[in-house]
Amino acid sequence: MLTFLLGLFRFVWLFGKSHHAVVLENLALRHQLSICRRKQKRPRLSGCDRWLWIAISIMWKNWRKALVVVRPDTVVRWQEEHFRRYWASLSKRPAKLGRPPVGVKIRTLIRTLDLANPLWRAPRIHGELQRLGIAASERTVSRVLRTETRPRPQTWKTFLQNHVSKIVSVDLFTYPRSVFKYFFVPRDRA
C or N terminus of the chain, fewer CB within 10 Å? Predict the structure, then answer.
């Protein structure tokens, strides 16, 4: 354990002294020696050994010269297999399809804004949400508003009945004058 800590300290110290290539070569050679010292006829490489060689091949330009235990093509194959497995695992993950659901707090805020301001529609409410720092698209706001039951808009007949006492009906006709100006004359009702 002590030798491991001393080796790790030496590795970090030399790596900080800008002797990167020397440190990586030393690490590679020491690692190969430890593989050869394993008590087996033909030492097998573990996953950690493969990861170490992949990392060394990424960080060090001349890694092929120091490699004795396996061929350099094997390390490249390990990298390709790892890359393939990584992307295969990403594609096998169950992905959540579609947009994320709108939170209950945001829905209630949209409904509150809609009830407080009946003339506002999705673009205006979306703008207010953006001012508050809430990330919701205008389409999301319109979908939430679509689920709300709104009273039917006022018809023209209802509008005229409500405002009949205030409506003034004036009928005008124009009379062109000799100085090329128009004179507006109200027409009398018969």
Answer: C
Q: What is the 8-class DSSP label of residue 175?
A: E
Contact indicator for 43, 71 with CB cutoff of 8 Å:
no
Q: What angle do CA 149, 152, 153 make, to 5 degrees?
A: 130
Count, residues in the chain: 190
pTM attached to this predicted model? 0.34
CB 171 within 8 A of CB 184: no
